[in-house]
Amino acid sequence: MNGVPGWEGTGCWRLIAGAWFVCLPLGVAATEPVERPIDPVERLHWAFQPLSRPSVPHPPEGLAAAHPIDAFLQARLHAAGLRALPTADRATLLRRATFDLTGLPPTPEELDAFLGDATPDAWERVVDRLLASPAYGERWAQHWLDLARFAETDGFEHDLPRPQAWRYRDWVIAALNDDLPLDLFLQWQIAGDLLAPDDPRALIATGFLLCGPDMPDINNQDERRHVLLNELTAAVGEVYLGLQVGCAQCHDHKVDPISQLDFYRLRAFFEAGDIFQDHVIATPAERAADQQLRAQRGALAGPLEGELKRLEDTARQRLRDQNPDLPPTADNLRGVLTAEEQALQHTLKQQLARLPPVPDLPKGRVFREGSSRPAHWYARGDFRRPMAEVAPAFPRIADLPGLSPGDGGPAKLRSRRELAFWLTDPHHPLVPRVLVNRIWQFHFGHGLVRTPSDFGFNGGEPTHPELLDWLAAELPRRQWSLKALHRLIVTSAAYQRSARPAANVDEVWSQLVAADPENRLWGRREPLRLDGESLRDALLAVSGRLSDRQGGPGVRPPLPAELVSTLLKNQWTVSPNVEDHHRRSIYLFVRRNLRYPLFEAFDRPDTNHSCPQRSRSTVAPQALVLMNGELAADLAKALADRLQADHPAAPEVQIASAYRRCLGRFPTPSEKERAAVFVQQEGLASFCLALFNLNEFLYID
User: Fold this and answer.
1) With the CA atoms of 460, 464, 467 and 472 taken in that order, what torsion angle do they form, in degrees rounded to the nearest 10?
2) Ranges for the DUF1553 domain (predicted)?
3) CA–CA separation, 104 and 139 (whole Å)
C-alpha cells in the first residue's frame, strides 16, 4: 500500500482492514477487549455518589412546613422569591387522590362523606381507605407492568399466546395490595426461585425476567437464548438501576462508563437460568396433598380400569378368533361381547366417570436455576462469536465499596441470589433513588429526575437532589413499605396544591408560570390526562357497568367491526362471558401485535420495551374514539338508563346526578340551564356522551 499515493491520508486501509475483520470465520476468537478503567471524574456524577440522608431544612422565617417534603420544596421556592399555590378544594382533592391511588372516580357517596367530614384527620383517613382498597393494587400494578414489558403473547411474526403469563400480573397486583416490602418485591423478581423455592409467589415473580418478547419457534435456539438473555439483562439495568446498560451489548457504552464486559458480566448472573412455560407452582404441602388425592383416586379407579381392560382383552381375542380380517374398532369389539359383558362394561364406565377428578396443580411461566453454563462475552454482540469466559460481576460504576455481598467464594459461582441482595442494599447509590423517583413521577406526572430510566450522563439531573436522597434513604427506614411512601407523599402540601389559578392567587400563579414554566420547583400541580385504562374504567364505573371480578387469564372484549374485518383468524377471540367485557382494564388480554383501540389512541406503550413514562399526546383519534366509538356510546346509554331508573321523570335531578358521577361536582346554574335544553333536544344519552368528552372528565386537576 505504500506504493499507492494518498492511502495513508484517506484512511482507506482502515476500511479494508475492518471489512476483513468482519469477514473472519465465525467462532474465530479476537483479542479480548481492553477494558478502560473508570475515570475518577466519572464517579463524581450525582447518581453514582454514596446515598446519604440529608437533614430536613428549617423553614424560612415567617413560613411553616410541618411536612419534610414541603420543607425541601419550600426552601427552593423561597430562594427563588416564589410562593406556592394554596391547597385545592376538597372535591378536587378527592377526585385527584381517588384516580391516582385506585384509577377510578370517587362515588357521590364518597364525595358527600369527605365534604361532610370536619375532623382534623379526614384527609389521612381517605388516603388509608384508598390504599386499603383492592382497586389500589389494580391501579398501581399497571405502572410496574409498563416497566416490566408485560404482555400475554410472544410478539414477533406469530405472536403466540402465553397461557400462564397472567399469573405474573396477578402476583404484582396481590403484592402491592399486601404491601409486600419493596426490597422483597424486587428480590423475588430477580431470584425468587433461589430465595424462596417452596413459595409459589416467589416462583411466579421470576416471570419479570421473561416478560419481554420471545421467539420460541425460531430455528436456532442458541440465537433465541442469546437474544432473550440480552433482553432481560438490559431490562434489569433499565428498570432497577436506571441505566441504559443494553447499549453495551455490542460495544462499550458511548457515553456512560459501562463497558461491553460490564454488560456480559451482569448477564452471567442469568446464564444458568432455564425457562419453564408450565412449571408447577405449589407449596410442598399442596404437592403432598395432590399426591395423596391421586393415590386415593388410583386405589378406587384401579380395580375398575383393570376389569375394563380384561373385558377389552377378551373382546380383542374373540374378534381375532372369529374374524381376523375385521379391524378392532370400538363397535366391532363391543359386538363380540355378550349382553351381560356389555352391561358390565357400561356399569364400570359409569362408576369410573363418577369418581371426582383430581384438579391439576397450578402452573406458571417461571425462570429457574438450571445446570451451570459457561458465560462469555460476544464479539459485536453476535451469538455466533462467543469469546473469553466471564464471571458474574456487578457493573463497576454502580458497585461502591461495602455494597457487594458474598461469602468469599469464587466469583464464577455467584448467583442471582447475590445480585438480588446487591440490588436491594439500602445504601445502593442507584436503586433506591430510581425507585422513589418513579413513585414521585406516578404521583406528580414527572419525576424529580425527568429521565426515570436514565440516571447516566445522558439523563437529567434531579430538581431537588436533597429531597431525592432523603426519600431514597427514608424508604428502608419505613421497612420498604410502598404504602408508607404513598402516605408520605399524598399527605404533603405539595401533592394537595391547586392546579389552576384563582382570583385570590392570580398573581402567585402568574409569577410561578413566568419564573418556572416547567414546574421544576413544584409550586403548583399540573393537570394530568387520564391514561387509556383509567379512562375506560371510569366510563364503566360511572355507567354502573364495572365488574369487580379479580384475577385470571386476560379477557377479550369485543373490538370495533372495522378492526375485526382486518384480523387474522383467532387473533382476538371474544370472551364468551359478557360480564368479563366489563372488567377492569388491567385484566384485558395484552397482545403485543394488537393493542386495544382505546388504549392505543391514548398512548398505551409498546410492550416490546420497558416504558418508564407514558406519552401524553393530544390527537384527533382520541376525540373520535370518545365521540363516535361504540364503547363510549354504549356506556353513555347505560349511564342514561341508570339515571332514569334512579330518578324517573326528574330531568333536573338526572342532570345533577350525571355531573356528580362524571365530574365529582354539582353543575352551576348556567350549566343546568343549558343541559336541560340539550337533554330536551338531543336526549339524555347524548348528554352523557357529551360529559364523557369534556376535558374536565378526561383530566385530573
Assistant:
1) 10
2) 416-677
3) 8
- Beta-carbon contacts of residue 11 (< 8 Å; ≥ 6 apart): none
Cell numbers that stand for 57 in this block: 431544612
d(CA 431, CA 420): 11
Rounded CA-CA distance 552/535 in Å is 22
Task: Write the CA distances from 81 to 86, 224, 347, integer angstroms.
Answer: 16, 58, 91
Provide the terminal-to-terminal Cα distance of the chain, rounded to the nearest Å.
71
Tracing cell 423455592 back to the chain, one arrives at 197
User: Closest Cα partner for 391 from 376, 377, 412?
Assistant: 412
Record the pTM: 0.90
Cα separation of 328 and 340, whole Å? 20
pLDDT class of 11 with cuts at 50, 70, 90: very low
Closest C-alpha among 440, 434, 426, 453 to residue 486:
440
47 phi/psi in degrees, rounded to 5: -75, -15
Q: How far apart are CA 271 and CA 273, in angstroms?
A: 6
Encode pLDDT of 421-480 as tens digits. 999 999 999 999 999 999 999 999 999 999 999 999 999 999 999 999 999 999 999 999
DSSP string, 614-669: ------HHHHHHHHT-HHHHHHHHHHHHHHHHHSTT-HHHHHHHHHHHHHSSPPPH
